[in-house]
Design goal:
There is one protein chain. 30% of the residues are buried. It is built from five helices and four strands, in the order αβαβαβαβα. It is 37% helix and 14% strand. The chain is globular and about 35 Å long. A four-stranded parallel beta sheet has the order 2-1-3-4, with helices on one face. The protein is an alpha/beta fold and 110 residues long. The chain starts with 7 loop residues before the first helix and ends in a 12-residue tail after the last helix.
Length: 110
């Protein structure tokens, strides 16, 4: 299965425009509390995803970096579960931070 992705610049533009979409960090709650992209929600289980997301939502999933499999697994679970508009921000927290973009959370100074 090919994973549809979104680049850092595309994601930043969506956030800056105030587009209506769900930005989902797929790591555990501890990692989310430490650092996440502003506006994100934390979903680390299929059950939480079913509770917080609707199949018609536009969704961007991410985790720590390109090698992290959590967002890949979330992408597959969502698309196989009938969510039609899902993309993966492969660079994740590492890529976002490397660009100098803000993070929230206790390790990010937020």
């Amino acid at each position: 299965m090919e994973i549809k992705t979104i680049s850092r610049d595309e994601l930043k533009a969506k956030i800056d425009r105030g587009d209506d979409f769900e930005l989902v960090m797929t790591l555990n709650e501890w990692a989310f509390d430490a650092a996440h992209i502003p506006g994100s929600i934390n979903i680390s289980s299929v059950e939480a995803g079913a509770r917080l997301l609707k199949p018609a939502d536009t969704i961007v999933v991410y985790c720590s970096d390109e090698a992290c499999v959590a967002s890949q697994m979330a992408y597959r679970a969502l698309t196989e579960g009938g969510y039609g508009n899902v993309r993966r921000y492969a660079g994740g927290l590492s890529d976002w931070s490397d660009a100098g973009y803000p993070l929230e959370g206790h390790s990010a100074g937020g």
